[in-house]
Fold this protein.
Amino acid sequence: MRRIENTVWWITGASSGIGRSMAQYILKNKGKVILSSRNEDALIAVAEECNTSTDNYLIIPLDLENLVKVDELLQTALNKFPKIDFLINNGGVSQRTIASETDIAVDRKIMETNFFGAIILTKAVLKIMIKQQSGHIAAVSSVVGKFGFPLRSTYSASKQALHGFFESIRAENVKNNIKISIVIPGRINTSISNNAISQDGKKHGVLDDGQANSMSPEKAAPIIIKGILKHKKEILVGGKELLMVHIRRFFPRLFYYLSNKVSAK
Ligand SMILES: NC(=O)c1ccc[n+]([C@@H]2O[C@H](COP(=O)([O-])OP(=O)(O)OC[C@H]3O[C@@H](n4cnc5c(N)ncnc54)[C@H](OP(=O)(O)O)[C@@H]3O)[C@@H](O)[C@H]2O)c1
C-alpha cells in the first residue's frame, strides 16, 4: 500500500462532511492537500484545525455548478505543488424531490454540480497526470449510483453517470498508469440531507433519521483513503444499508420487493 506522506491530494467538497474528514486525515498523516468548495472561510478553518504549516495545503475555492477557468485553477495548484498524485471528486448535492414535480432547473443544477463539475475538473487534472505518467482519480458516488431510489431521481442519475464516465477513463488510461476508484458511501452522518435540494428549490434543512444514526465521517475517511491507496476499483463504506448493493446484484427480485418498503428518509 502507498504511503500518504508527501503525496499531493486535491479534494472537492472539502469544507464539510466526508471531504472535510478526508482532508484532515491526509494532513494529519503528513500529506499535502488542495482543498476546494465554494465556502472559502470553511475551507481555511478545516485546514487550520490541523495545526499544520501552510506549506502543506492550498485553498482553491470553486463552484462545481459553474466551473470556469479550470486551467487557471490548475495552474494555481501547480504553482504550489509540482505534481498532483490524487484527485478526489467528492463535492456534491443531494435531492429530496418527486421527479414528476421537480423543475428541470433543479435537475440541471444537480447534474452540473455532481456530474459536469466533476468531469470538467477531472479532464483538466487528467492531462497533467498523463504527462506525469502517474496519478489516481476517485469519484464519490453513492449506493444510489448502483440503483434508483425514491426522492433521489436526478441525484441517482448523476451518480450513475459518474460510474459510466470513470469506468471508461479507467480503461482509456491503464497505459498511462492512472488508477480510478469509485467510492460508494451508504449513509454517513454529514449535512448531506440538510443541504439536499427540496421541492421548492431551497435546502431540505433536515437531518434525516437514517443519516443521524449512521457512520461518522471521521470513521469513513480512513476507510476511503486506505481503499484508494490500495487501488481498489470500488470502495463501499457505511453500514448495513450497503447490503442493498449486494441484494440488487445477486437477488434482484428480492431487491425490488424490499425497495418498495424502504423509507426514503
Ligand atoms: N453522507 C452520505 O450519507 C452520503 C451518501 C452517499 C454519497 N455521498 C456523497 O458524498 C459526497 C460528500 O457529501 P457529504 O455527505 O460530506 O455532504 P456535505 O457535508 O453536505 O458536503 C458536501 C460538500 O460538497 C460541497 N459542494 C456542494 N455543492 C458544491 C458546489 N456547487 N461547488 C463546490 N462544492 C460544492 C460542499 O461545500 P460548499 O458548500 O462549501 O460548496 C461540501 O463541502 C457527496 O458527493 C455526496 O453525494 C454522501
Q: What stands out?
A: The pocket of NAP is lined by residues 12-13, 15-19, 37-39, 42, 62-65, 90-94, 113, 140, 142, 185, 187-188, 190-192, 195, 211 (CB under 6 Å). The chain has a mean pLDDT of 96. The CA atoms of residues 62 and 94 lie 18 Å apart. The longest strand covers residues 178-185.
